[in-house]
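Annex B. Sample input.
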Amino acid sequence: MPFIVDLTSGTAEREHRSGEPGHYGGSILGLRLMAERTPAGLDPYDPRALVYVAAGMLGGTRAPGLAKGVFLAKSPLTGVAGEAHALGPFAAGMRGAGVRALAVQGRAERLSYLLVRDGEVSCHEAVELRGLGTAATTDVLRERHGPGAHVAAIGPAGENLVRYASVVTDYAYAAGRYGIGAVFGAKNLKAIVCVGDAPAEVADPAAVAAIDRYYRDSIAANPLAALQAGEPGFAGWTGEPPAPGYASVRNFTLPGGLRVPGVRDYGGRAVAVSGACPGCPNDCLKVYAPPSAGKRRAGGLGQEAFLSLGWNLGIDDLDTVLAANALCNDLGLDQVSLGGTLAFAMECAERGLLPGGPAFGDAAA
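Annex B, continued. Sample output.
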């Protein structure tokens, strides 16, 4: 089932495994391939290191809550297997292009991207994309391959091997954590582009449709699902302040005390609040940006972004946090890891260990 892609030679071959006993796709197949092909002690940036990208088992179907793309590699941040998930339409895009999984090894001689179309995989040079953010990269590749193309791209952070660089899909939906974007960068892999609209087949369409109807009918009665589906969504952190110690405030030096935004504060800031994940009615990941932002498209707001880039840094201004979140997506930086790094630097500066360093609460920093 997976395509084994060698960037060094530019070849891609389909490997048939679906008939093996105990075969599973998704993350399990990725871990299995890593165990088979990654020698002990291998540096995550070694060309032999594998990066695995797959559509979730039900990505592209109408099964609610399962429209995820899987990104898996030996993490340059932790040194062990790291798995990041991207919500949004990219998993459906992979299935539509006729591919469920890619296992990528080697290193391209020049910056390149993979094109997946009609069940085939090819490698193309992309030197002109060097230094571009994920949004501009997506613009160029959609202009080249059509507005319906789905793109997973790295930004300058991945190119420069930042150990918590992310891969960002379709402008706003990041596979954060574990530095998968840096592994892309080490392979000179700028992006993966998926083109096609093949339907995602399931064994029992009626059963999937019944699950979908039940889920949609049950959202309003489930407090968590209703919070996710409503605005501003579960990543908005509105309402009552969290219990003391629940969230990191100023690098865990305070139990709380910063302002909690209200629902009205998000007025005029919504860019896309529905339809992100094909087939899922929950719409838990929404896109927000400050009204003053230029191109308002990169601000997919994950659950922990507000805490990491806001309260953890002593900042409670909503527009500052939303702008920082969108900038992280465009640069290809994991919001949570960056927030922790900045908070540590701020505490060091506060304690006199980093003269001239950034200060808690300084949005300009």
